């Protein structure tokens, strides 16, 4: 007697319960972070989907981990929320023990440890970015699978595929804060136009020695490209 | 006197032993042409809205077992603490037990802290439990309440993700209810307007979704007061079958009035029968 492959037949699909009531919630997403001299600029769209239904059209995917360290979340909403909560706790504890502000690299390492250890069970693509006194503004990317690497500019999520060309051709080292903000907003807008799982508003955050400034760019205020 | 005992290590996590048994039973039953009983689900429309003084939670009252209505008036708004209530959609048993477990733990926590529990605490407890079970506990919840930081509303999905929003809907009728919210929601509404909005959103779910039906329950939570309105609105009244005989209604009567069927012709034909054989058989009354 063999174990039949489909145990899921126990939850018989029937017309009363549409597909999206049984699908997992995912942050379809486009996320991005850029380093500049003195800090980082982070950006994300605001759409969370269950299948074809938008469960939350004003999601905040820029999650604070510590005072000057944020993370951008993409992948499964449940997985990334749980990981972010766990790392927030661990980093807070570590910071109290040290009695000083934690390093961005420490936060990124904590994310990497969790994402790599549980790589089979998790679906999470995270960009960790922030400012610390030792190394200034830093961006670390921890994609699905649990690798960790530092990059001057990083994009992630399902919408990122559409903007690699834009980012590669438009990024210049040593951009100012305003140039980074414009660059991020435009890149995210282009991705949101093309990716069905990304949309809503553009959320931006600038992290520097002075602290965190947050902005929202509403749908009608997004930068305009060709009207084709 | 020494006792040698071997400690059996019970690995943590969900026990899937019964799934194998269920799969085999399914296969056997379907060979005979029957289908195994479906878990009772609350087809459901549930929603919540934050208004000026607090939150209003709403739910329909239909529980389905496959395509049959198992309970026409079930209660989907569950008590968590005196200032926090939770609507549940998905598998009825899962929502019932999950809310009861968290309610119990929250009461203990509240006694330990000496404070009224916060909605964020209930949210944390629920999301951590649901994430631990990786979505196998089919509970989709709308959690609302008022605490020292004001009114709060969360939607919690079976896999453990949560969203904090001013208005949320869940369940199979959530699209119909969300349509009403997206049209008429405004920040800082008055209580009557908020109640009307939630009532209309649930009504949209009841009338446009097969998995939702019957009545509308409302729960209005403000600082220091909870109005549990069950039922707030009996949207679907069951009719009374009328069968008037001589002026008063008689249900289930099969008597027809004289003259209902008109007689056109009447023919009487006598049958002339001869008695051929006569035999008597005594009845056995022993």
TrEMBL record, chain A:
In the record, what terms sit under GO molecular function? threonine-type endopeptidase activity
The cross-references to PROSITE patterns, in alphabetical order and at most eight, read:
PROTEASOME_BETA_1, PROTEASOME_BETA_2
Tagged with keyword Cytoplasm: yes
User: Is the keyword Protease assigned to this protein?
Assistant: yes
- Compartment(s) of residence: Cytoplasm; Nucleus
Q: Name one GO biological process term.
A: immune system process
Superkingdom of this entry's organism? Eukaryota
Q: What residues form the catalytic site here?
A: 29 (nucleophile)
Q: Which GO terms describe its cellular component?
A: cytoplasm; nucleus; proteasome core complex
Q: Which Pfam families match?
A: Proteasome (PF00227)
Q: Which reaction is this enzyme known to catalyze?
A: Cleavage of peptide bonds with very broad specificity
Which terms are listed as keywords in the entry? Answer: Cytoplasm, Hydrolase, Immunity, Nucleus, Protease, Proteasome, Threonine protease, Zymogen
The record's section on InterPro entries has: Ntn_hydrolases_N, Pept_T1A_subB, Proteasome_bsu_CS, Proteasome_sua/b, Proteasome_suB-type
Job description of the protein: Component of the proteasome, a multicatalytic proteinase complex which is characterized by its ability to cleave peptides with Arg, Phe, Tyr, Leu, and Glu adjacent to the leaving group at neutral or slightly basic pH. The proteasome has an ATP-dependent proteolytic activity.
The entry's family comment says: Belongs to the peptidase T1B family.
Quaternary structure, per UniProt, is:
Component of the proteasome complex. The 26S proteasome consists of a 20S proteasome core and two 19S regulatory subunits. The 20S proteasome core is composed of 28 subunits that are arranged in four stacked rings, resulting in a barrel-shaped structure. The two end rings are each formed by seven alpha subunits, and the two central rings are each formed by seven beta subunits. The catalytic chamber with the active sites is on the inside of the barrel. Component of the immunoproteasome, where it displaces the equivalent housekeeping subunit PSMB6.
Name this protein carries in UniProt: Proteasome subunit beta
Q: Which organism is it from?
A: Cyprinus carpio carpio
From TrEMBL, chain B:
Tell me which SUPFAM superfamilies the record gives: N-terminal nucleophile aminohydrolases (Ntn hydrolases) (SSF56235)
* One BP term from GO: proteolysis involved in protein catabolic process
Write down the InterPro entries for this protein, in alphabetical order: Ntn_hydrolases_N, Pept_T1A_subB, Proteasome_bsu_C, Proteasome_bsu_CS, Proteasome_sua/b, Proteasome_suB-type
Q: Write one Gene Ontology MF term.
A: threonine-type endopeptidase activity
**Where does this polypeptide localize?**
Cytoplasm; Nucleus
Q: Which residues form the Proteasome beta subunit C-terminal domain?
A: 252-280
Catalytic activity annotation: Cleavage of peptide bonds with very broad specificity
Record's keyword annotation contains Cytoplasm: yes
**Active-site residues (renumbered):** 44 (nucleophile)
Name the UniProt key words of this record, in alphabetical order: Cytoplasm, Hydrolase, Nucleus, Protease, Proteasome, Threonine protease
A GO term from the CC aspect: proteasome core complex
Predominant location:
cytoplasm
Task: Describe, as the record does, how this protein assembles with itself and its partners.
Answer: Component of the proteasome complex.
Function statement: The proteasome is a multicatalytic proteinase complex which is characterized by its ability to cleave peptides with Arg, Phe, Tyr, Leu, and Glu adjacent to the leaving group at neutral or slightly basic pH. The proteasome has an ATP-dependent proteolytic activity. This subunit is involved in antigen processing to generate class I binding peptides.
Which protein family is it in?
Answer: Belongs to the peptidase T1B family.
Protein name per the record: Proteasome subunit beta
Native organism? Cyprinus carpio carpio
Recall the taxonomic lineage recorded for the source organism: Eukaryota, Metazoa, Chordata, Craniata, Vertebrata
């Amino acid at each position: 007697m063999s174990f039949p492959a489909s145990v899921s037949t126990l939850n018989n699909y029937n017309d009363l319960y549409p597909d999206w009531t049984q699908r997992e919630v995912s942050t379809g997403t486009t996320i991005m972070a850029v380093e500049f001299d003195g800090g980082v600029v982070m950006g994300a769209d605001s759409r969370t989907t269950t299948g074809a239904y938008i469960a939350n059209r004003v999601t905040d995917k820029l999650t604070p981990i510590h005072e000057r360290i944020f993370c951008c979340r993409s992948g499964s909403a449940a997985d990334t929320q749980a990981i972010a909560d766990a790392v927030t706790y661990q980093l807070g504890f570590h910071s109290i023990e040290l009695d000083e502000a934690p390093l961005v690299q420490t936060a990124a390492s904590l994310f990497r440890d969790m994402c790599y250890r549980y790589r089979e069970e998790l679906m999470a693509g995270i960009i960790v970015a922030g400012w610390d006194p030792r190394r200034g503004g830093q961006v670390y990317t921890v994609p699905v699978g649990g690798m960790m690497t530092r990059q001057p500019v990083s994009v992630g999520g399902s919408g990122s595929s559409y903007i690699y060309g834009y980012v590669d051709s438009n990024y210049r080292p040593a951009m100012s804060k305003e140039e980074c903000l414009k660059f991020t907003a435009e890149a995210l807008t282009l991705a949101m136009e093309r990716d069905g799982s990304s949309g809503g508003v553009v959320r931006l955050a600038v992290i520097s020695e002075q602290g965190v400034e947050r902005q929202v760019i509403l749908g009608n205020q997004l930068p305009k490209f060709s009207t084709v | 006197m020494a006792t040698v005992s071997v400690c059996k290590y019970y690995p943590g996590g969900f026990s899937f032993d019964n799934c194998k048994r269920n799969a085999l039973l399914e296969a056997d039953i379907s060979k005979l042409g029957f289908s195994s009983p479906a878990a009772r689900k609350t087809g459901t429309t549930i929603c919540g809205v934050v208004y000026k003084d607090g939150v209003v939670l709403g739910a329909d009252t239909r529980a389905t077992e496959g395509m049959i209505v198992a309970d026409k008036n079930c209660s989907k708004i569950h008590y968590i603490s005196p200032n926090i209530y939770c609507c549940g959609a998905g598998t009825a048993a899962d929502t019932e037990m999950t809310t009861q477990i968290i309610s119990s733990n929250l009461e203990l926590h509240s006694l330990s802290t000496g404070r009224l529990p916060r909605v964020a605490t209930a949210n944390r407890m629920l999301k951590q439990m649901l994430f631990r079970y990786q979505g196998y506990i089919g509970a989709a919840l709308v959690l609302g309440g008022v605490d020292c930081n004001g009114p709060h509303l969360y939607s919690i999905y079976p896999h453990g993700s949560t969203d904090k929003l001013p208005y949320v809907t869940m369940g199979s009728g959530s699209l119909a209810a969300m349509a009403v919210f997206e049209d008429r929601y405004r920040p800082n509404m008055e209580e009557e307007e908020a109640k009307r909005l939630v009532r209309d959103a649930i009504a949209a779910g009841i009338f446009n979704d097969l998995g939702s039906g019957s009545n509308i329950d409302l729960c209005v939570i403000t600082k220091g007061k909870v109005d549990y309105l069950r039922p707030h609105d009996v949207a679907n009244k069951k009719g009374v079958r009328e069968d008037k005989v001589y002026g008063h209604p008689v249900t289930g009567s099969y008597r027809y009035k004289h003259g209902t069927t008109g007689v056109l012709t009447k023919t009487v034909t006598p049958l002339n029968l001869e008695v051929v054989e006569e035999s008597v058989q005594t009845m056995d009354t022993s």
